[in-house]
Amino acid sequence: MDPLIDTCRRWLDEAEHVLVAAGAGLSAAAGYDYGDAARFAELFPALHKAGLRARYQLIGLPLPQPLLWGYWSVHVDDIRFGPGANPVYQQLREIVGGRDHFVMTSNVDGLFERNGFSRERIWTPQGDYARYQCELPCTRQTWASRPIVEAALATYDPESGTVTSPPTCPNCGGRVFLNVRKGPEFIEDPYVATGRRLAKWLEDRAASGGLVVLEIGAGLSTPTVIRRPAEAIVRGTSGARLIRVNQGHPRIPGDLSDRALSVPYDAATLLARCGKAAR
């Protein structure tokens, strides 16, 4: 028997409401690891030959547009538009079960929605690979990215890692990028309404009690996005509990010690061992 797993299961069984607060560690456990050198070499032979070894090295790296979109079109097609369900996210969906729930995540890969969570209950404050925007931006409008990804892939050359015709802004003809938070040009408009729904949901649950925040894979690289807000929600909600699942950074704040559980497992191990706790 594992006391941590037993306590985790019991807290979830006792919960009336569950807020899933997820970071990059969850998607890494699901097989989308930005540090996976073998997968990088398989998908990006030209970049691998040039000396790069992992996707995280490409974040913010200035590249010529043909090479930039050669990388991002392959990356987004793999991580955002890949087919089929994911077993790790499916296990999480089963564990949440029929409880009243909401999701907030820094992940921009759409894996929650693709595995049975309602889009209306998923807040992605860092954006979504499924949309793109003008780099200026010249407009507050954003557009579905799948058409430009597919068009780029149609001209993609694996040997050079480039595309023939990088996408441009439908409004001004300038450069575009994915609608993700990488600087002050980020257009957050598509995510504001869901953020407000989450705030109202939390306000209502604070009054009724029985909230568990299940935080998974939210480390210290960007703690203000998921990790610190999760702590603040529990701290400010009477009777709320925090389950922190993080193999590398499981520490919990001292003032929450009686209402927080530190689980030093990776997400896949925790979800597999916790089992289906749905009611």
From TrEMBL:
Xref: PROSITE patterns: SIRTUIN (PS50305)
Identification of the protein by name: NAD-dependent SIR2 family protein deacetylase
Entry keyword set: Metal-binding, NAD, Zinc
Sequence ranges assigned to domain Deacetylase sirtuin-type in this UniProt record: 1-279
Presence of the UniProt keyword Amino-acid biosynthesis in the record: no
Organism domain of life: Bacteria
Keyword Ribosomal protein: no
GO molecular function list: histone deacetylase activity, NAD-dependent; metal ion binding; NAD+ binding
Binding-site residues for Zn(2+), renumbered to this chain: 134, 138, 169, 172
Entries under InterPro entries matching the protein: DHS-like_NAD/FAD-binding_dom, NAD-dep_sirtuin_deacylases, Ssirtuin_cat_dom
PANTHER family: NAD-DEPENDENT PROTEIN DEACYLASE SIRTUIN-5, MITOCHONDRIAL-RELATED (PTHR11085:SF10)
